Amino acid sequence: MIKEWATVVSWQNGEAQLNCDVKTSCNSCASRAGCGSRILNKLGPQTSHTLSVACDTPLVVGQKVELGIAEGSLIGSALLVYMSPLVGLFLVSALFQALFGTNLAAICGALLGGVGGFLIARGFSLKLSRRESWQPVILSVALPPDVLRVETVTSADDR
Q1: Mind listing the pLDDT tens digit for each residue in 26-57?
Q2: Which N-terminal residues, if any, form the signal peptide (predicted)?
Q3: Which of 8, 85, 90, 136 has the smallest count of CB within 10 Å of its CB?
Q4: CB atoms within 10 A of CB 14
Q5: β-pairing, 137-141 with 64-69?
């Protein structure tokens, strides 16, 4: 089970809206200047994701919850999203190359196969996302933010 903490945005009728912050490994290693991942992370504007999760326990805005998702569903979705366009690209490109015998046909086949593979992945992902085993679940719930309060008392003698 892969686990991640999220913050409650809202809770109504047994459904919680949760905000998950995207964590990157940038700024944690010594090779920040020449890192390609760091540059790619700067290009993407989205730093958090909002998702809906079923929860019977009433939650408070700002409360932290631990989410979990099965490794198999995560690996399966990654394979679907990355491999189907790639397989489509190679298969249709090879087919067009064999049928027409030109590089232009192979390029057109690669484009058609990649887009077709993407559309197939999109169609399957909509069906697979309805499976209960592919949904994130709430594993644990932290205390609401207003329950725990820490006070420090300093006396005149400590100064």
Answers
A1: 555 666 566 666 666 666 656 678 888 988 88
A2: none
A3: 90
A4: 10
A5: antiparallel
